[in-house]
Amino acid sequence: MNYSSLNYNSSTVSFLEAVKKGLATDRGLYFPEKLPTLSAEFISQISSMSNHELAFHAIHPFIGEDLTEKELKTIIEDTLRFEFPVVPLTNSIASLELFHGPTLAFKDVGARFMARCLAYANQKEKGEKLTILVATSGDTGGAVADGFYEAEGIDVVILYPKGKVSEVQEKQLTTLGKNITALEVAGSFDDCQDMVKTAFIDVELTQHINLTSANSINIARWLAQMFYYFIAYKNRPHPEKELVISVPSGNFGNLCAGIMAQQMGLPIKHFIASTNSNATIPNYLETGNYEPQQSIPTISNAMDVSDPSNFIRIQKIFNNDFYKLKKFVSSYSFSDTKTKKALRELYKNTHYIADPHGAVGYLGLQEYFKEVDETNHQGIFLETAHPIKFAPTVEGTLKLKLDLPSQIEDLMKKPKLSIPLEDYKALKKFLLER
Ligand SMILES: *Cc1c(COP(=O)(O)O)cnc(C)c1O
Question: Domain for residue 288, yes or no?
């Protein structure tokens, strides 16, 4: 499998090359040259396969010759070392919990998969030192820091918006030290993301250091997220009903992976792109105009993205056919007030404690069920983070105290190590002078 740039102005590369480069030289996102299709036989066997087998079949066609089957299997076994339970909440709604990894958010899978792919790439080429530059709206930073912690020959530099991530998130990205550095940016996530993009096309910089990205624009992170949808399909509580999946979306990488799995043949009828007040995509689907605004801070901060990088890939999957996209994807935006109300409603009616992102996903299903006959549908929303990551909001809204999961008991006691950063000039200076 080869990957070409969606700006169509640079040469195609293999899987591991695309993982190493992150973005193509023309600043475009990489996209596979063709979409694989799943055989009917494979689909009929999904319910009897292990998560590792499913993940292998899902991603194998995207790897090509770059990894042997044995290497890929080892990477998958190392990546998927925790559970992905589907929890039924009502007759038609279930939660797929993606937060049982080391940093308690779904991004662990993509980050771990990418870290292990890069380790193979480096080992094969006895590569020079790599610097991973990553912008985070909250959860990416922690997952990438954990995935790459103490990785040989790899330095990780994380940019995060000052005062706009939760306490647990900040601890996860600022307390590791060693090969992990956190830069605290006076600005929004979009500002952080812009600086990262600028760094990649700054020739003066890229001549001196070997930069790569671990944002969801990196194909290793993006494609590994397909696993969730196979697991959702396998464990759906009502196989006789049509499956619809609601994805709380920010940069739209996770949704893009789901749509990819669907277009390869995985039987998912419909997707719901659920967003917070950052409503660029719901507005686009309604009006046809793509008009990103300044991003708005919300209680589901990992989705405070107004110009989602991966949306262009979703358009590409549908051959830029707006009506085809609308046939498979609905999108709704929800305010913080509605999100808190959903948290309370879920807790009161089903005793389920969601996090604010999952609650947005739940609201998306409810909205969609106003348009279709709910009794024929099985809705699954992705519960993308553990509620403890947003403890002040969840505890305040539900008037309860959450238990600390074992993953973060020690973490909360460690001191924060971060470097304040003003602008791109300062970032460049920092990278060149380290
Ligand atoms: C990153 C994140 C999202 C958004 O995922 P995208 O792939 O960027 O759309 C949603 N919820 C949580 C908890 C996240 O960390």
Answer: yes
Count, residues in the chain? 434
Q: Cα separations (Å) of 311 from 103, 284, 289? A: 26, 11, 13
Question: What's the maximum distance between 2 C-alpha atoms anywhere in the chain?
Answer: 61
Q: Is residue 344 part of a domain?
A: yes
- Residue 145 CB coordination number (10 Å): 28
Mutate to test the pocket of ligand 1, among 106, 245, 247, 305 (most ligand atoms within 8 A of CB): 106
Helix (H, G, I), strand (E, B) or coil at 225: coil
Over 70: is that where the pLDDT of 126 sits?
Answer: no
Task: Assess contact for 234 and 44: CB atoms under 8 A.
Answer: no
Place of tokens 């771990």: 112
Please tell me the distance between residue 11's alpha carbon and the centre of ligand 1 in angstroms: 30
Q: Which of 274, 280, 303 to mutate to test the pocket of ligand 1 (most atoms within 8 A of CB)?
A: 303
**What pTM does this model have?**
0.93
The radius of gyration of the chain from alpha carbons, rounded to an integer in Å, stands at 20
Report whether residue 276 contacts ligand 1, using a CB cutoff of 6 Å: no
Q: Which two tokens stand for residue 418?
A: 């971060």
User: For the segment 28-37, what is each residue's pLDDT rounded down to a tens digit?
Assistant: 999 999 999 9
- In this structure, the number of other CB atoms found within 10 A of the CB of residue 124 comes to 12
The structural domain count of the chain equals: 1
CATH code assigned at 399: 3.40.50.1100
Question: Is residue 313 in some structural domain?
Answer: yes
In a domain, 374, yes or no: yes
Q: In sequence order, which residues have a C-beta less than 8 Å from that of residue 426 and are 6 or more positions away? A: none
Domain of 338, in residue numbers: 84-106+222-404
Q: Measured between alpha carbons, how far is 365 from 345 in angstroms, rounded to an integer?
A: 14
- What pLDDT digit, counting tens, does each position of 167-190 carry? 899 999 999 999 999 999 999 988
DSSP-assigned states of every residue in 66-87: SS-HHHHHHHHHHH--S---EE
Interior CA angle at 19 toward 170 and 14, to 5°?
170
C-alpha dist (Å) from residue 19 to 51, 137, 317: 23, 21, 20
CA of 380 to the centre of ligand 1 (A): 16
